Amino acid sequence: MSTRVIEQTRGFSREAAVELSHLLGEPEWLRQRRLAAWEVYERTPMPSRTDEEWRRTDIRRLPLDAVWPYTGLGQRVNSPEALPTALVEILGDAALRSGLLVQVDGSGVYTQLDSELARRGVIFTDLLTAAREVPKLVQQFFMTEAVTIQDNKFAALHGAFWSSGTFLYVPAGVEIALPLRSFVWAETPGAAIFAHTLVLAEPGANVVLIDTWASPTVEEPLIASNVVELIVQESAQVRYIQLQDWGRSVWNFTTQRGLLYQDAILNTLNVSLGSRLSKAFIASNLVGPGATAEMLGLYFADDAQHLDHQTRQWHVAPYATSDLLYKGALKDRARTVFSGLIKVFPQAQRTDAYQANRNLILSSTARADTIPNLEIGANDVRCTHGATVGQVEEEYIFYLMSRGISRPEAVRLIVDGFFDEVIERVPVHEVQETVRTAIARKIGL
Amino acid sequence: MAEHTPLFMIENLHAGIEGKEILRGVNLVIERGEIHALMGPNGSGKSTLAYVIAGHPNYEVYEGRILYKGENVLELPADERARMGMFLAFQYPTAIPGVTMANFLRLAVNAVRKARSGEDKALTPREFRRLLREKLEMLRIDETFASRYLNEGFSGGEKKRAEILQMAMLEPEFAVLDETDSGLDIDALRTVADGVNQLFNPNMALLVITHYQRILNYLRPHYVHVMLDGKITISGGPELAEELEQKGYDWVKTQHVGTAS
Q1: A358 neighbourhood in chain B, CB within 8 Å
Q2: CB–CB of B83 and A404 under 8 A?
Q3: What integer pLDDT is reported at residue A188 of this predicted model?
Q4: CA distance B115 to chain A (A)
Q5: pLDDT digits (tens, 9 = 90+) for A44-71
Q6: A399 and A274: one domain?
Q7: What mean pLDDT is predicted for residues A29-57?
Q8: Which chain B residues are Cβ-neighbours of A412 within 8 angstroms?
Q9: Which of A90, A261, A300, B244: CA 20 to 30 A from A37?
Q10: Are A402 and B54 in contact (CB < 8 Å)?
Q11: Are A84 and A65 contacting, i.e. CB atoms less than 8 angstroms apart?
Q12: Shortest CA gap A342–chain B (Å)
């Protein structure tokens, strides 16, 4: 496993974007898009705390000029064993997946897909390869429908500096039983990370994708600016699970949007454990009648972590359902922000939307803010929301202790129980185990 | 001859909550193999006594001692008391969302067993399941109970049965049953009482706290105590419970005032 380091200067610039395009040897249309994204980035003001969306998340110290705009070009490996050891350890059980895609430092380095699925037309590869092999699909769907460079400044930056990504295309009617797994691993200190996931599920397709983003903790700050696009066409079903476990020097920005066409089902789980600061925009746009979005979130902030989730349930079409549940725990001096909006457009009659955010505070120095919102333009809808911030009930602890369980064990049991409501709703055993282990690690027992 | 140490003893206990004294000098001695009933009207301090015995942190002890196997347990946190073999079946068990009965019981059983056997010996998952199944059958509790969240959405009767299930799993040497009969219909009461009777053995002791005489038809006490205003004012044999049932607590009050004056 080696990475070829490229000469470059720190900070982002048009020249750097041009140079990256050249290094990647990409076609002209991609180069044009990259430069268009750079222009949007340049003319979009840097968010500040006077913007409502950024009021509680301070990025004044974001080291934009200190990071390398892209890393080296990772070399492909022939087997997962040749990957970095720390990454190999989290790859999971090969028998439990039908495909594996690994990106290291901004390059696709390993791809594997069940041959039967490949034969049926499933494409699971890195984005650059996809752009070369199925340019029409990439041209049509890459940052055009779900997330665009206009979304926010970090999506624009992403459009200018992405170098790889997870591309998953499931043709009409193809149902994939075992999950596909994608890993984005970053280990070059001080480098920017641009994780991209583009899922296109054609009518009637069915797929589970588990996306893991991780990096070892290093001294130098890193910036990750990611985009996730989930396009779920008529009657297709996608389950997307994202485990964000970056090292503690990462400033993480994610823009994720699901597009749901008629009768489509999208189940998402966003697990946020890592990074120093994270701002994630997570949206489901229900554009087809009868679509169903389940949006689950689980976050656990410790030390001085700052995790901010901004969710959107965008009801454009009638008869659609969205059900959001985000649960978070905080300890030490951590801070979390949740702001969620259910927006129902005038034509979206018979919308059924639910939104809940629950926070469990484990120390007196942690702070959780939760801001639920409804914006309802139709008159025949059912929308409910709820938000809570609470501490571990002393009565729970006493009850457990009265049965011989020690105080720390009691707290762990209660926190596990708190998250169980979310974990139980994601019927992927390997993910459940991974998340439970991560929670135990966070609690520190 | 070595001095005899009772299993459980309360000496001149004064305790309360938020500075308000509720127990005003309780004395009680309980030996192995005995069932004691503690009766009294609402507000007399019965449940406070149960919480103080179990070690609820909100209660304050102003004076006195609680000796279990000769050791003053008042300084010990609730979990240590439980690991020594003490148990309280709560009047109002706490519901804990997300924590399954089985997970909870496994942790509790292993914590208590390890402490009492003095070695690091957890039950294997298989041994645990066998033990749980056996106790569920004994108490005629449905197996699905184990996968439900602790007391969440349980009916009154289910909660009480779950408490006795915990007692059955933990095999305490000294158990306090706080109003285990309240809120139970006669069939549920009989099931719960049958369960307790099966668990009872000459090596352990029970303190049954109740407002009514009803449960004592099933759990035959050796001694009956009546608590009034934070003190045990009368003690006697099982006939005292029947007398109370006929004459009511007012009768005790007049008796008490009579003896005190």
Answers
A1: none
A2: yes
A3: 84
A4: 9
A5: 999 999 999 999 999 999 999 989 888 7
A6: no
A7: 96
A8: none
A9: A261
A10: yes
A11: no
A12: 27
Chain A residue closest in CA terms to B50: A402
Do residue A405 and residue B108 have CB atoms under 8 angstroms apart?
yes
Question: Which chain A residues contact residue B104 at CB under 8 A?
Answer: 400, 403, 405, 413
The domain total for chain A is 2
Instruction: State whether B78 and A401 contact (CB < 8 Å).
Output: yes
Share of chain A above pLDDT 90, in %: 91
H or E element in which residue A159 lies: helix A153-161
Residue A305 domain flag:
no
Q: How far apart are CA A241 and CA A309, in angstroms?
A: 16
Give per-residue pLDDT as tens, A188-218.
888 899 999 999 999 999 999 999 999 998 8
Query: Is B170 within 8 Å of A402 when comparing Cβ atoms?
Result: no
Of A236, A260, A288, the position where a domain reaches its end is: A288
Tens digits of per-residue pLDDT, A274-296? Answer: 999 999 999 999 999 999 999 99
Phi, psi of B101 (to 5 degrees): -50, -45
Q: Is residue A149 part of a domain?
A: yes
Please check the confidence at residue B211 and state whether its pLDDT lies above 90: no
In a domain, A106, yes or no: yes
- Please answer yes or no on whether A413 and B103 come within 8 Å at the CB atom: yes
Q: How many helices (H) and strands (E) does chain A have?
A: 10, 22
Q: Do B57 and A394 touch (CB under 8 A)?
A: yes
Closest CA in chain A for residue B115: A404
Contact A135, A27 (CB under 8 A): yes
In chain B, where the domains are located: 8-260
ipTM for the assembly: 0.95
The pLDDT of residue B38: 97
Q: Which of residues 404-433 of A touch B (CB under 8 A)?
A: 404-407, 409-410, 413-414, 416-421
> Would the CB atoms of A405 and B79 count as touching at under 8 Å?
yes
Exposure string of A329-347, with b = 16+ CB inside 10 Å and e = fewer, is bbbeebbbbbbbbbbbbee
Mean pLDDT of B66-80: 97
More confident site: A8 or A226: A226
So what's the pLDDT on residue B2? Answer: 60
The answer as to whether A317 is a domain residue is: no
**In this structure, what token pair is assigned to residue B15?**
């305790």
Question: Chain A residues with CB inside 8 Å of B54's CB?
Answer: 402
Cα within 13 Å of Cα(A279), Cβ side: 18
Facing A413 at nearest CB: one of B78, B90, B99: B99
- Domain span at A414: 395-445
Q: Is the pLDDT of residue A445 over 60?
A: no
* Distance (Å) of CA B27 to CA A113, A404, B24, B76, B236: 75, 26, 10, 20, 14
Give the chain B residue nearest A422 (alpha carbons): B98
Contact B170 A418 (CB under 8 A): no
Q: Which CATH architecture best describes the domain B8-260?
A: 3-Layer(aba) Sandwich (3.40)
Interface touch A406/B82, C-beta < 8 Å: no
CA dist., res. A174 & res. A113, Å (int): 14
User: Could you count the other beta carbons within 10 Å of the beta carbon of residue A89?
Assistant: 9
CA angle B208, B209, B212 (to 5 degrees): 105
Residue ending a domain, choose from A288, A315, A339: A288
pTM above 0.95, yes or no: no
Instruction: Give the C-alpha separation, B200 to B194, whole Å.
Output: 10
